[in-house]
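Hi again,

Forgot to attach this to my earlier email, sorry! This is the prediction with magnesium ion bound. I've pasted everything inline since the attachment limit keeps bouncing my files.
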Amino acid sequence: MQLTDPLSSHFRLQEDQKKALARLNLKTIRDLLYYFPVRYTNVSEIKLIRDLVAGDSATIYGRISKLKTRKAFKTKMPMGEAEIDDSSGTISVIWFNQAYMAKMVHEGDNVELSGKVSEGKHGLFLSNPELKEKNVLPIDTHGSLFGKDSGEVFGFPIYRETRGITSRFIYHAIQKIIKTGIIKTAPEYIPLEILKKYNLPTLGTALVWMHSPMTENDATAARKRFSFEEVFFIQLARKIERENYLENKSFPVAVDTNDIDDFIGRFPFKHTEAQTKAINTMLTDMQKPHPMARLLEGDVGSGKTAVAATLSYAVIKNRPPKSPPLNPLLGKEGRQSYGNLQVAYMAPTEILATQHFENFIQYFKHTGISVGLITGSGCRKFPTKVASAKEPWTTISRAQLLKWVANGEIPILIGTHALIQKSVVFKHLALAIIDEQHRFGTMQRKKLVTKEGFAPHLLSMTATPIPRTLALTIYGDLDLSILDQMPAGRKPIITEIVLPAHREKTYDFIRTEMAQGRQLYVICPRIDEPDPEKEGAVQARSVTAEAAHLRKIFPQYSVGILHSKMTPAKKDEVMEAFSNHSIDILCATSVVEVGVNVPNATLIIIEGAERFGLAQLHQLRGRVIRSNHQAYCYLFPQSTGDTALKRLKALGQAKNGFELSELDLALRGAGELGGTKQWGITDLGMEAIKNIKMVEAARTEATAIVQKDPSLTDYPEMKTLVDLKKLDTHFE
Ligand code: ADP
Ligand code: MG
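C-alpha cells for the complex follow:
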C-alpha cells in the first residue's frame, strides 16, 4: 500500500460508495487519512440495550425501525413510537405527546437517543428520549469497533456522512489503513523545530491520535496540529506568492502633489481622513520600483471608489520610462493621456462595472482623459463627440476598444472579468484595481505581467469585514489599509429586531415609507421551499415563497426576485429594474451583498436573521446606507431564543463590520463560520482562526522560512504541499 494509491485498489467499493467518495473528493489512501472526524463520542456515556434496567438515564446508539404515530387509546394523546436496535438488544421507544418525533427520523436511521428507561406492561421502553444525533456511526457491539477494545480509546470518531457512505465505513477503512503501518512511511513535512516549539505531535502520531485517540488530550493535540498546519500552509503559499510578485518590475509612479490635490479638490465632498491616509500610503507604495500588493478594507459606503479614482489619476499622469515624446499630431483629447501608464479596474458584476464607469466619468470629465468600459454585453468609451446629457459616453465595438487599449489611447479601462481575457492587451498597465473579489489568484496575476517582466501595482478592495486572524491568513500576500471611518453626515441606519407579534405593525410603517417613493429589500435565507435535507426541522423562509407572500401584503407594489441560481444576464436585468424603480420590492437571497448601489432603497427586511452571521447581516444592511433619506433595517428572527436575540442585538451596538466579524468569530462555532465556502478553509482550519496565538505563530514561522529560503529548496515536501495549496485556492 502506498499513500498515493487509489482507494479502489485496496477496498472493494460499490457503485454508490464510489460516487460518495468522489463527492467527498476522497481519491487516495492519503485523502482518506486526512478525512478527519467531526467529533468523538464518549464511550463511557453509552449503554448497551441488553444492560439497561428500569430507572436508568441512558444514551443509546442504534438503528431505528417500526416508526409509527398513533393516538392513545383513552386520552387520544398523540404519540410517536419506534424500536431501536444496537445489536445487543432491542428496546421500544415512546414519545408521549410528541408524535412529531417519529417523523424526524426515518426507518433504518442510525440515531443517538438519550432518555429515561421506564417499565410498562410490555417491558422496558425509552420514554420521551431526546434525539441527539441522526445518522451517527452505528456502534457494532460485537465487532472490533466496540466491545473488547473499548477500554483503549477515549472516544469513537464520528465522520461526516454522505449518501452512500457511512461514518462506520470510513472508520473501518481508516483503521485498516492504520493497521498496515503505512503511516510510519509518511514523511513529516513540517520542520521538527517548529513542532517542538509549539508542542505539536508529529505527523504519524497526529494521524493515529486523530482517528483513535486514547485520551481527550491526544485528540485535542492532533486537531491542533492539523489546524496549525492548515493556516501555516496557506500563509506559506501567500508569502511565496508575495515574494514572487515583488520580484517583478513595476512602473514607478511619480507624484505631483499639487496636481493630485487639485483632482481631490474637485470631488463633491471632502475626503475622510481615512481615505486621505490610504491614498498617501499607496502613493508612496507606487513610487517604488517593485509592484505594490495591497488590500483596502472598508465597510460598505466608506468610499473606496474615490480612493481608487484618485490613485488612478496619479498613475495615468505618468509616462513609462524612456517613452518617446507625445505625438503633436494627436488631437487635444488624445494628447492628455495617449501612451501614458494605464489602469484596469475590475468589478465582480456588470452593474457594478457600469456604476464605476459612471462615477469615473464624473470624476474625470474635466481632464479630457479617456475611460473605457468592457463587459460581456458590450463596450463604451468616454468622452465622445456625440454625448448627450443622459449618455455622456458612446458605444464602441470591442475590436475598436481593444485597439485603443493596446496602443495606449485609453488609459483607464473598467470592466468585469472580461478585462483579464487574453485578447485584452494593455500597452503599459501600471495599476490593477480589483473590487469585491475575495481573492485574486496567482494565475490571474500572472496574466497581468508583461513579456518584459512588468507587473502592475495591485490594489484589492473589499467590504467583507473579516477578523484579523483570518485577514492575516488569507491575505498574507497583501499589505493592509483600512477605511475605518464613514463619510461625515451619514445618518446611521435604524436597526430593529422585530418579534413575530410586531410584524404587521412593521409592514404598516414600511407602507408609509413606500408611499413616499422608497424601495424595499427583503432578504431570505433560502431560494426554494422546502429543503428536503432538513425534513422535520423548522424551514427557513425561501425567496420564492416569500415573494408570493409579499405580493399579498403589498398588492399595490411590484415584487422582483433575485438569487444565485439565476443566470448572470437575468440577475442584471432584475437589478437594473430595481435600480430604475420599475420594481419596488426586491426579494433576494444574500446575493445582493456585493456592492450594488440603489440610493432610493432605504428599507431592508432580513427574514430568519439569526441564520446569518453578524458580519454578513452588517453587509446586507449596508445596502440601504446610500442616500440622504433615513434608512431602516428590520431583523425578523425565526427563532427567538436568547442566544439568537443576544447576537442580533450586537448589530445595533457595534461600531463597524470588523468589530462584528470578531464577535461572530467569538460567538459561533468554527463549523458555523462558513470558512470552506467563503475562504477555502476547512472547519478544522477555522479552529485555528479562532486562536490568535496560533495564527501568529504560523505567520512568524512562515515568514521566517520564506525569508531564508523563498523557493523552499531545502523543504521539498513542503514545497509540494504549498504548490497544491496554490491550486486549491483558485476557486473564485
Ligand atoms: P464603497 O466603499 O462601498 O465602495 P463608495 O465608493 O461606493 O463606497 O461610496 C459610497 C458613497 O459615498 C458614494 O456615493 C460616494 O460618492 C460617497 N462618498 C465617498 N467618499 C465620501 C466622502 N469623503 N464624503 C462624502 N461622501 C463620500
Ligand atoms: Mg464599492
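The first strand starts at residue 39 and ends at 42. The pocket of adenosine-5'-diphosphate (ligand 1) is lined by residues 269-272, 275, 298, 300-306, 463, 487, 595 (CB under 6 Å).

That should be everything now.

G.
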